[in-house]
Amino acid sequence: MPEITAAIIGAIASMVLMTIGSINRRREKDVIEIFRRLIQLEKNVVKLEEQIKQQSLPYDQRRL
User: Fold this and answer.
1) Of the candidates 46, 49, 50, 56, which lies 20 to 30 Å from 40 by C-alpha distance?
2) Cα atoms in the 13 Å half-sphere on the side-chain side of 9
3) 63 Cβ partners below 8 Å, 6+ apart?
4) Tens of pLDDT along 37-64?
5) Dist CA 35 CA 41 (whole Å)
6) Does residue 12 carry a pLDDT above 90?
7) Where are the domains of the chain?
8) How far is it, in rounded angstroms, from Cα 54 to Cα 61?
């Protein structure tokens, strides 16, 4: 009987640890996605700043 109890406790502990690991992986994926989107936003801001800068320059100084 103690072997069965130990096996049940071990199975429950394994299940809890697997669940925690799954939650952590999901959080890690979410953080990676947030940083990916942040990098894309930064690229877009740089492009917009370049466009604004180009519009404010006299015509002969603009890159063609």
Assistant:
1) 56
2) 6
3) 54
4) 999 999 999 999 998 888 887 665 655 5
5) 10
6) yes
7) 2-61
8) 8
Return the pLDDT at 61.
62
Encoding tokens for residue 45?
A: 């801001």
24-34 tens-digit pLDDT: 898 899 999 99
- Binned at pLDDT 50, 70 and 90, residue 7 comes out as very high
In 10 A of CB 11, how many CB atoms?
Answer: 10
The CA distance from 13 to 5, in Å, is 12
How far apart are alpha carbons 52 and 33 in whole angstroms? 29
- DSSP label at residue 49: H
Distance CA(26)–CA(24), nearest Å, equals 5
Which residue in the block uniquely carries the two structure tokens 């492009």? Answer: 47
